[in-house]
Amino acid sequence: MDPNFLFSALVQILLLWLAVSLHESAHAWMASRCGDPTARGLGRVSLNPLRHFDLLGSWLFPSLLLVFGWPLFGWGRPTPVLDKNLRRPFRDDLLVLVAGSAANLLLAVAATLAVVAMMQALGAEGREAAFQALFPPSGTAKARAFPVIFTLVRLAFINVGMAAFNLIPLPPLDGGQIALHLLPPDWAARLAAVRPYGFMIGVLAAVGLVPLLTFILGMVINFS
Predict the structure, then answer these.
(1) Which of 19, 24, 73, 146 is catalytic?
(2) What is the pLDDT of residue 143?
(3) Closest to 164 measured CA to CA, from 91, 90, 94, 214
């Protein structure tokens, strides 16, 4: 098997586990700050991927995406939150829901700024390596030649994808839960009816978002 593929696959799986761990631990940390110690007591305020590992979302589904050369994303085990323990349930539940995607976006911004700084330092060759990291399967070509740029570009992409996936306004995803809080009761009831199918629809929608996210990151690289 191609060593470049093995290297890029391993790096991306590890980055996905970091993104998942950051997302779920941010939920747990915010819940603890707002009065619910449930997730903290279960050890979920941790970047240890084993604390958040979901066999389908953290391994089987991402591995299938890698085999077919598709952009990577996944999910972890949901973080348990007991609304009755929150000091101000309405506000605090929104903060908990937003915390996971906010953490992913902050890490994505930090990785993007690091990529821009490296491209400025390396010039045209660094820019080419960043583009190849962004557009698979050509991204495997210079994965080992420019491992830091490859890692940072995929770190930014995976975390942006994680945030976008979770903010899709369909329950049980975070975005759907937020929408249920904010919509008028009759609209919220209609949206709640989608819950049994919301996750799978969200996965399909996330696949559709990939070209848009790739375009946005590509524009950042191109104009940096």
Answers:
(1) 24
(2) 66
(3) 214
Query: pLDDT of 146-204, one tens digit each?
Result: 889 999 999 999 999 999 999 999 999 999 999 999 999 999 999 999 999 999 999 88
Q: For residue range 201-220, what is the model confidence (pLDDT) as tens digits?
A: 998 888 888 888 888 888 88
Residue whose tokens read 């085999």: 67
Q: 3-37 burial string, b = 16+ CB within 10 Å, else e?
A: ebbeebbebbbebbbbbbbbbbbbbbbbbbebebe
> Do the Cβ atoms of 157 and 185 come closer than 8 Å?
no
24 among known catalytic residues: yes
Three-point CA angle 22, 192, 187, nearest 5°: 115
Top pLDDT among 140 and 81 is at 81
CA dist 53 and 74 (Å) reads: 10
Nearest in space to 177 (alpha carbons), one of 103, 83, 105: 83
Structure token digits, residue 95: 């903060």
